[in-house]
Amino acid sequence: MSIEKLHQIFLQFPTVCTDTRKINKSCIFFALKGDNFNGNEYADEALRKGASHAIVDEKKYAVSNRVILVDDVLKTLQKLATYHRNYCAAKVIGLTGSNGKTTTKELIYAVLSEKYKTIATSGNLNNHIGVPLTLLSIKEDTEIAIVEMGANHLKEIEFLCSISQPDFGYITNFGKAHLEGFGGVEGVIKGKSELYDYLMEHNRSIFLNADDPIQFNKLGAYIKKYGYTQHKKDFYKIEFLEASPYVSIQVEGKTIQSQLIGEYNFTNCCAAILMGKYFNVPLESIIKAIETYLPQNNRSQLIEKNGIEIILDAYNANPSSMKVALENFSGLNGGPKIAFLGDMFELGGTAPSEHQNITDLSAKLNLDKVFLIGENFYETQTSFTKFKNYKDFESNFSSVELPSRGKILIKGSRGMALERLLDLL
User: Fold this and answer.
1) Are residues 242 and 276 located together in one domain of the fold?
2) pTM for the whole thing?
3) Angle 155-159-165 (CA atoms, 0-180°, nearest 5)?
4) In the chain, which residues have pLDDT < 50?
5) Are residue 371 and residue 262 in the same domain, yes or no?
6) Which of 120, 359, 414, 416 lies most in the core, judged by the most C-beta atoms within 10 Å?
7) Which residues, if any, are the signal sequence (predicted)?
8) CB-CB contact of 268 with 278 (8 Å)
9) Residues 293, 295, 296, 302: is their CA dihedral positive or negative?
């Protein structure tokens, strides 16, 4: 079946599902394959649960006229997404970077939704499957679609751009994330910059942090760029006021008081403000959107328990985000400061040195106690209390002395799931 004909079916049943546990009535089930499963085997179950059609790529499962046989289910999903993206009139904003992608995406969504019918990537569905699913969530009346793109190796952003074909793009930053896949920081810069490469090749617009020398120099004399700055001329000026603990910003003589912790969230807010201005969202609406946005899903959440302020930043971690989180935490006023740090993943051969660097940094900062959790931190040379894994930490938690007041930082990679600490605390 051609993509055009499949798209006609999709317009009649405009919901896509890839998991039979989450079947929506009259959705189209795409029988994707993984290392440990074959979606083709669940096509019949999907239909019985209410799916309108099932897309399979193994002939023996094409047993009814509601089952559509294709050469490759994943490629068909991706091609359908691109076709639908071009069928709809929505402008697509591509978003990538090492840190802050999801928070930035949510802030941009909050701002642009003040004026436009906007959709954005759900959660962190930002890979070769998630990006197509986001594109297929665009409705015919959608005006702007914000598509988050993640990557852990070269050419991945390039491929996701070929699917999403963004009209605009923004890179949050270049940090020490996924070093194992990218082969080092230079690989990270090259890989994330594939978004810029696509936009420049197709003469499309770029948003940037003009104070980031990597971004500024990378774009050079490219004309269709729109940046924010604290220092340069010829770009939109946004000033950082403070983060004690919440980020305060000044723009056009007005103060914006966010509910985001840490100076590192300043640029995330700036991106949303810049895009709001570009798309002619009234400044009052931009301010409202930033000020009312509340972080969720373990990202820089401020929680109070038993008189102690807890900064829960356990959604993910890499050396760059860990460094800025610790430095910000160290600068906060009020009571003893205790940090619980979990291992950072996907660092390859640099893991020992990067964990030692974070340990050494922590020793120099204004912190009262630091507890290290995970195999990599366990191998560091330090006087801090260390635990080989979370189970070891949990078993010995009774020996951890906590103050009756003060502040706690919880930071670690997703695989460490340090939000479990909340129950212990």
Assistant:
1) yes
2) 0.88
3) 135
4) none
5) no
6) 416
7) none
8) no
9) negative
Residue 79 lies in a domain: no
What pLDDT is stored for residue 88 in this prediction?
97
SS3 content of the chain, % helix, strand, coil (to 5): 40, 20, 35
What is the rounded distance in angstroms from the CA atom of residue 279 to the CA atom of residue 111?
10
Over residues 343-401, the pLDDT tens digits come to 999 898 999 999 999 999 999 999 999 999 999 999 999 999 999 999 999 999 988 88
Its domain, for residue 7, covers 3-73
Establish whether the linkage from the previous residue to 245 is cis, with ω within 30° of 0: yes
d(Cα 146, Cα 137) in Å, to the nearest integer?
Answer: 11
CATH at 382: 3.90.190.20
Of 292, 324, 349, the residue that ends a domain is 292
pLDDT digits (tens, 9 = 90+) for 43-78: 999 999 999 999 999 999 998 899 999 999 999 999
Say yes or no: 307 and 386 in one domain: yes
DSSP string of 107-121, one letter each residue:
HHHHHHTTTS-EEE-
Annotation: binding site: 97-103
- The annotated binding site for ATP is made up of 97-103
Same domain, yes or no: 309 and 258: no
Q: 350: helix, coil or strand?
A: helix
